[in-house]
Backbone:
């Protein structure tokens, strides 16, 4: 059984991003880039499923420009067996991304596609669900626990009401949440070994995928900032101001 | 005619408050009608609640035993069938809507606009990216507009409506590949729901343990507040996941948010940008939470809570 894992290159979560003055987007020149943290969790989960003897191969996939191969190398260093780079300089929105992943799933026939629940740059939280729809596969989003049981999986999902369990037939798309696992650290020898693992580069043309209709970004702006308030010196002072405002 | 259909979130008995907020956003589109769809096993009660929402024209009630639990793979084909009468289909951007709507959009072959925070026109919207540190103004593609509504950006509509309720039979085949197994809620308390609460008392890693969290609960109960937490507190097992506030947890807009032992990481702040008044208590005077707090108090949270309880 194969597992396909999405790996997206994003601005590192520690970076305080800056909106460009002309409103054309967020400054990414010279900014630290990393694998989407949710995707690290997805890669880790795929590896654990393989290590438990329930999968044979873990394939990491990225869609984007040449530099995204850095993140594929990280996935390979973590332990993925091979990687596919769908190379494009276009902005790939979730619907097109899902079409690409579907084309890859048709080709590779994985039993599970593991994606992050959201990418921390665009925060769309769409790709996994769209892939589920296009493939007519079940989806289990926001997973905090995944148990593979033969031809199905029982997935615990973090939802607003608490923890929900779904049972889904395989193949299925699973999107991962933060508490599913703690990704392993890659060690230097693994990074060296990863350099010899294969990355296959293909294009949208090779996959016969057309870009879907897209949402047009008209401008990017800085949100209204909250004004820093005051420091109070004592609990009494705090209680007084909150009472004045009718809050307590 | 252009009309918007808002997908109701509910638990079978009770309409979730997020629905009235999504209706508020949908009402700003300036269309000919705002309808609400209730998909349920037995939905008469919820449909009545939806019909009372101000501004709603028609409640479309779809009853099917398969709708007992909200399973996206089962709901999506039904919503697709309803969608042909509408120019827009919206749902709240709660885990319910986030799970469901992209599946609907992809089937319909259109992109989705996630987390709408402002309506500029029927096709132009603002939405947050990068944990709310930037806002993009986006224009929807041709065709039906599928969107989720950032509920913290909208106040719920009132309950002065009297919409008609229309029962629909849908002949769509539902997949059998997804089965609901169960739900564990941390509920059982009569504390206000985090997403609807006017006041929220929240604890972070600084609270230190699950046992210590009892001081947070106690203060919350005294104030009639909901209870929130940082990711660090949830990860450490101090409190269940459904209390997490932030970019990847719940986005909330209470009138009063009190943060105890929370440093103020951007991912946490993403969840409280729309709070009315933020109070932060932290022993570190340089904690970033003080940059957004209306009232900051440097001190030990346990001592402060102790004094607060006495003063209230
Ligand atoms: C310069 C620039 C301009 C952009 N302009 C636009 C624009 O005009 N409109 C717009 O909507 N977006 C724009 N984007 C962002 C767009 O390309 C997003 O990457 C895309 O919308 C996917 O959204 P998401 O990552 O939030 O998806 P989500 O659905 O949040 O992603 C969830 C998961 O899907 C998988 N996934 C998503 N994308 C990839 C990928 N590329 N490779 C591998 N796995 C993936 C990952 O597992 C990820 O964790 C722009 C980006 C850049 C850098
Ligand atoms: C992809 C991603 C998504 C994330 N999503 C979220 C999210 O949705 N929500 C979220 O909250 N975080 C999220 N995080 C995590 C976030 O980056 C922070 O790690 C987290 O918010 C820190 O929680 P904290 O403030 O409780 O802990 P810390 O940063 O450890 O802060 C603890 C604070 O408590 C103070 N303190 C300690 N003891 C006391 C005392 N006795 N009295 C007073 N003060 C005390 C300390 O001074 C410190 O400031 C996310 C991270 C990533 C990478």
Residues:
């Amino acid at each position: 059984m194969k597992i396909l894992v999405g790996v997206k290159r994003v601005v590192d979560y520690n970076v305080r991003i800056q909106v460009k003055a002309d409103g054309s987007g967020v400054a990414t020149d010279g900014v630290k880039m990393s694998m989407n943290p949710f995707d690290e969790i997805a890669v880790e989960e795929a590896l654990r499923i393989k290590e438990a003897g329930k999968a044979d191969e873990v394939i990491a996939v990225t869609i984007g420009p040449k530099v995204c191969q850095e993140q594929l190398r990280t996935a390979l260093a973590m332990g993925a067996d091979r990687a596919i780079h769908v190379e494009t300089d276009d902005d790939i929105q979730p619907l097109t991304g899902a079409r690409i992943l579907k084309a890859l799933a048709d080709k590779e026939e994985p039993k599970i596609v593991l994606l992050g629940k959201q990418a921390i740059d665009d925060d769309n939280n769409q790709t996994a669900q769209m892939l589920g729809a296009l493939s007519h596969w079940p989806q289990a989003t926001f997973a905090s626990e995944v148990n593979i049981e033969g031809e199905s999986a029982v997935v615990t999902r973090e939802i607003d009401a608490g923890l929900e369990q779904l049972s889904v037939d395989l193949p299925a798309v699973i999107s991962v949440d933060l508490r599913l696992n703690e990704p392993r650290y890659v060690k230097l020898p693994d990074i060296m070994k990863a350099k010899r693992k294969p990355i296959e580069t293909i294009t949208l043309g090779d996959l016969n995928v057309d870009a879907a209709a897209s949402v047009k970004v008209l401008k990017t702006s800085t949100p209204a900032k909250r004004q820093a308030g005051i420091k109070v010196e004592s609990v009494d002072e705090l209680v007084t101001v909150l009472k004045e405002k009718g809050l307590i | 005619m252009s009309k918007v259909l808002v997908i109701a979130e509910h638990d079978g008995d009770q309409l979730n408050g997020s629905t009235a907020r999504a209706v508020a956003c949908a009402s700003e589109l300036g269309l000919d009608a705002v309808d609400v769809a209730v998909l349920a096993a037995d939905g008469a009660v919820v449909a009545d609640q939806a019909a009372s929402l101000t501004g709603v024209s028609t409640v479309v009630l779809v009853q099917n035993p398969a709708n007992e639990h909200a399973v996206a793979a089962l709901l999506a084909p039904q919503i697709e069938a309803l969608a042909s009468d509408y120019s827009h289909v919206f749902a709240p951007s709660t885990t319910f809507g986030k799970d469901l709507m992209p599946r609907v959009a992809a089937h319909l072959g259109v992109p989705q606009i996630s987390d709408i925070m402002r309506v500029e026109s029927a096709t132009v919207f603002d939405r947050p990216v990068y944990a709310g540190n930037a806002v993009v103004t986006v224009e929807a593609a041709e065709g039906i507009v599928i969107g989720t509504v950032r509920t913290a950006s909208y106040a719920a509509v009132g309950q002065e409506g009297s919409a008609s309720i229309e029962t629909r039979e849908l002949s769509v085949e539902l997949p059998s590949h997804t089965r609901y197994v169960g739900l564990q809620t941390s509920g059982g308390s009569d504390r206000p729901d985090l997403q609807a609460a006017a006041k929220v008392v929240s604890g972070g890693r600084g609270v230190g343990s699950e046992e210590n969290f009892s001081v947070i609960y106690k203060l919350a109960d005294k104030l009639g507040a909901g209870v929130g937490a940082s990711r660090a507190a949830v990860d450490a097992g101090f409190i269940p996941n459904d209390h997490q506030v932030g970019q990847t947890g719940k986005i909330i807009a209470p009138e009063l948010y009190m943060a105890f032992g929370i440093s103020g990481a951007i991912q946490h702040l993403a969840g409280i940008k729309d709070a009315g008044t933020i109070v932060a208590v932290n022993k570190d005077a340089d904690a970033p939470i003080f940059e957004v707090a209306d009232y900051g108090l440097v001190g030990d949270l346990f001592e402060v809570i102790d004094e607060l309880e006495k003063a209230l």
Q: What stands out?
A: Chain B has eight helices and 16 strands. The mean pLDDT of chain B is 96. Chain B has two domains: 3-168, 199-311.
